[in-house]
Amino acid sequence: MNFSVTQANYTIEANLTVIGQDLLIEITGGNVPHIGTVTTLTKTEKITTNRFPSHDGRYHKDGVLAEAVAKIIQPQLPGSCTITSGVHVDKISLEQIKASKPMSENLGRQISQWLQKTTLDSHQPVYYGKNETPK
Question: Which residues form the Prenylated flavin chaperone LpdD-like domain (predicted)?
Fold first, then answer.
């Protein structure tokens, strides 16, 4: 599934891949898409973001975008969720910076609506019982 929003003369996209009951969401956009942060969560586990260093030694700030999406979709998550995020707009303007979080929230609402009307049919894992072992 692909979701997008365009505002302030650039586009942010979210590409959602379903893996069993889990979600992988790639948030990219601007002139130089990349992976600047990785955010993980479940319906009940807290949102955690790891940031990677950028080419100039500073750390990427894309986690702000991923966390905006994560907070909106968290109540609908069927399993775990990993969000990679990397949006770079060359010589970004203040207007574009201010637009980025509302754009991400828009993506989160789009994904949330999709999750609410979608049933993820996948085989449920079967585990050994407490007193069973592999033969």
Answer: 7-116
Q: What digits encode the pLDDT tens for the residues 39-93? A: 999 999 999 999 999 988 899 999 999 999 999 999 999 999 999 999 999 999 9
Residue with tokens 């009307």: 117
Total tally of structural domains belonging to the chain? 1
Q: Is residue 41 part of a domain?
A: yes
Half-sphere exposure of 86 (CA within 13 A, CB side): 16
Q: What is the pLDDT of residues 90-109, one digit of tens each?
A: 999 999 999 999 999 999 99
Full-prediction pTM beyond 0.85?
yes
Q: Is residue 134 part of a domain?
A: no
**Exposure string over 71-103, b if 16+ CB within 10 A, otherwise e:** ebbbebbbebbbbbbbbbbeebeeebeebbeeb
Does residue 131 sit within a domain? no
CB within 8 Å of 61: residues ≥ 6 apart: 36, 37, 51
Q: 29 pairs with which residues across the strands?
A: 12, 87
Range of the domain at 57: 2-116
Under DSSP, is residue 52 helix (H, G, I), strand (E, B) or coil? coil
